[in-house]
């Protein structure tokens, strides 16, 4: 459906003044002040809002919740709630594995249908599970788990075709990767549609399907445990035959920029965004999200890496990151007992340490420049040598601030994103301070878009 012209005009003006950025691999703080927990996620768009449904790993690798977040700009995410949560026993009980939740909407039953990989802690069950919801981000009814058509299933994806037919993409590790048709209500697998036999390449994990025009694009990864590999794609104009040879789409040797496919978001009839997970196997909750625009021309797909990029409001187009100024913490003004700490990988080899804590350490950056009035994404470069998140309150131009999370980052400074409104001119002020008396991250510098 097209937007009425008034809404379109409003949307376009937002594009002109906003440069919210997607920062692959950064800490993305959601509306609840915590790092987004939606690993192995799928997206679904309902009435112009994107919903992201993924694994909550905040309590470790065992199933805790399948979370649902919403966003209209793909950058700022609101935690709506858990669509499934741990129960006392059974499939959703303690020490269970629930991975790669994906939701599609069934027009006939008017239910949102959620499929996921369901397993024991040792991955010995190799099942799928199904649940349904009346609203996209509400509580779902858990139905059952099983092996689809009697076969093992580990990584999985879902695909809804233009004609309303639903398909399960399933890793049958003993055989290969399969496309299996679903019943009209999407609750059961019915028949095999196509399969790729396990070969030297072993492209069986992380399947995700995109359709642009009449062409299907199937993405998948190799099998290298939690470590990243060179993910690949194949195309066809039919689900049942004619699939091309598998090819890489990211730069060779980059291991898909150290990520694994989870979902491909279609943004127009000729564009799509790659969504991957950068898994940290020893601390899964600190795994981050690598989202990058795909370049698609006919049956050719490629993807470049960016520190950040700007999704425009139509999402079909995107822009490279704006020019940035950098502001060093050690040149800013310290409050409380904040002070310089050595940081060999930081710019100038220094960072602001002792942010927060009982003495309320803080760092105040003044004279921050912006060429426009409007929302932008500032990257706070930081270190956090803990195994859990640290937090800071970020105040902008005298406001009360917002809580930001900083996932573990040892060695090289990582980025946590701060989405805020800046004033045109050169007198914006940003204060990074503690939350309560807990310790914040060590802050290396701010990277601030000029426009
Ligand atoms: C989408 O918006 C329409 C019109 O406002 C409304 O009737 C419908 O219930 C909405 N659908 C969902 C799933 O929210
Ligand atoms: C930081 O590095 C300098 C120069 O190497 C050294 O003199 C100083 O002791 C170091 N400070 C700390 C706290 O390690």
UniProtKB/TrEMBL annotation:
Site residues, Important for catalytic activity, responsible for pKa modulation of the active site Glu and correct orientation of both the proton donor and substrate: 155
Cited InterPro entries: CBM13-like, Galactose-bd-like_sf, Glyco_hydro_43, Glyco_hydro_beta-prop_sf
Keyword line: Glycosidase, Hydrolase, Signal
Organism domain of life: Eukaryota
Keyword Signal (UniProt): yes
Single GO BP term: carbohydrate metabolic process
Every Alpha-galactosidase CBM13 domain range: 364-441
Family of this protein: Belongs to the glycosyl hydrolase 43 family.
Protein name per its UniProtKB record: Glycosyl hydrolase
């Amino acid at each position: 459906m097209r937007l009425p012209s008034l809404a379109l005009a409003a949307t376009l003006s937002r594009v002109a003044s906003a440069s919210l950025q997607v920062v692959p691999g950064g800490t993305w703080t959601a509306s609840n002040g915590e790092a987004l927990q939606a690993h192995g996620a799928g997206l679904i768009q309902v009435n112009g809002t994107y919903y992201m449904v993924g694994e909550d790993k905040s309590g470790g690798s065992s199933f805790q919740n399948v979370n649902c977040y919403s966003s209209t700009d793909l950058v700022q995410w609101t935690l709506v709630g858990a669509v499934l949560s741990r129960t006392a026993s059974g499939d959703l009980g303690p020490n269970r594995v629930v991975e790669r939740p994906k939701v599609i909407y069934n027009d006939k039953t008017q239910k949102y249908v959620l499929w996921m990989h369901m397993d024991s802690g040792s991955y010995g069950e190799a099942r799928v599970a199904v649940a349904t919801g009346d609203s996209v981000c509400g509580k779902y009814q858990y139905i059952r788990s099983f092996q689809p058509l009697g076969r093992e299933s580990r990584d999985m994806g879902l695909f809804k075709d233009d004609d309303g037919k639903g398909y399960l993409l399933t890793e049958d590790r003993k055989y290969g990767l399969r496309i299996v048709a679903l019943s009209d209500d999407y609750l059961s697998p019915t028949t095999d549609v196509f399969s790729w036999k396990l070969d030297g390449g072993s492209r069986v994990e992380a399947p995700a399907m995109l359709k642009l025009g009449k062409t299907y694009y199937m993405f998948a990864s190799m099998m290298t445990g939690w470590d990243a590999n060179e993910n690949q794609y194949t195309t066809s104009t039919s689900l049942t035959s004619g699939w091309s040879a598998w090819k890489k789409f990211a730069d060779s040797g980059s291991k898909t920029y150290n990520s694994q496919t989870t979902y491909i978001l279609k943004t127009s009839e000729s564009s799509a965004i790659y969504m991957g997970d950068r898994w940290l196997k020893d601390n899964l909750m600190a795994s981050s999200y690598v989202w990058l625009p795909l370049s698609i021309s006919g049956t050719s797909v490629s993807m470049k890496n960016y520190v950040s990029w700007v999704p425009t409001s139509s999402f079909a187009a995107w822009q490279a990151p704006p020019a940035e100024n950098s502001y060093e913490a050690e040149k800013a003004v310290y409050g409380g007992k904040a002070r310089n700490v050595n940081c060999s990988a930081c710019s100038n080899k220094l960072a602001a340490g002792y942010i927060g804590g009982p003495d309320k350490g803080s760092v105040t950056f003044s004279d921050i420049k912006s060429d426009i009035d409007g929302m932008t994404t500032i990257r706070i470069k930081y270190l956090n040598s803990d195994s859990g998140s640290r937090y800071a309150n970020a105040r902008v131009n005298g406001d009360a601030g917002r809580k930001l999370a900083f996932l573990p980052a040892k060695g090289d400074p990582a980025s946590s994103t701060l989405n805020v409104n800046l004033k045109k001119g050169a007198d914006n002020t940003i204060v990074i301070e503690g939350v309560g008396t807990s310790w914040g991250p060590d802050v290396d510098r701010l990277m601030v878009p000029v426009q």
